[in-house]
Design a protein that fits this description.
With about 200 residues, the chain is an all-alpha fold. It contains 9 helices and 2 strands; from the N terminus they run H-H-H-H-H-H-H-E-H-H-E. The relative contact order is 0.11.
Amino acid sequence: MGDKGEQTRQRILDVSQRLILQNGFSGTTIDEIIYEAGITKGGFFYHFKNRNDLARELMVRFLEDDDRILNELVARARELVDDPLQQVLAFLKLYAETVEAMDEVHPGCLVASYTYESNQFDKEIRQLTREGVESWRRLFLAQFERVQQQYDCDVPLENLADMLNALLEGGIVISRIQDSNRILALQMLQFRDYVRRVFRPKAAG
């Protein structure tokens, strides 16, 4: 596929994701996507076999983008400080700052959108969506496990990872309702304060 073809494909994906986050998957038609993307029906089906193919590619791209962003923030936090607890705290602050610096309100989460309409998707896409959430949980859990090597914590680390996952998803929804990214940023900072309190240095000896 040439550069022009790839640009068209990405434009279709961009338009589709925006429409699905606004209207839901069932509320978004191929005709709407074609109109918004400025292409022909033949152009759409050159790049995607059907709506299911489009849905799968959208989720793959969404998860790859989210993984990249999260891993970049983790890497930046590790560059800033050496202590594993301070790295987690830095990661949470960097995420809050990233969200608050967005020019527009958070567009929403494709994983949440797909979950609300899970009956619209085949088993492969539902599994892909589930694996995406589980990959975020593993990333968060790995950070907390690094902290536990030097700190004690009475809260199960799995619970902390699940709490962060739930905070992110719920924060995005509430931010969209309130038309402000501030709520998500504040909740991340509140969770940051909680993490600081639940970990304590291991006793000497």
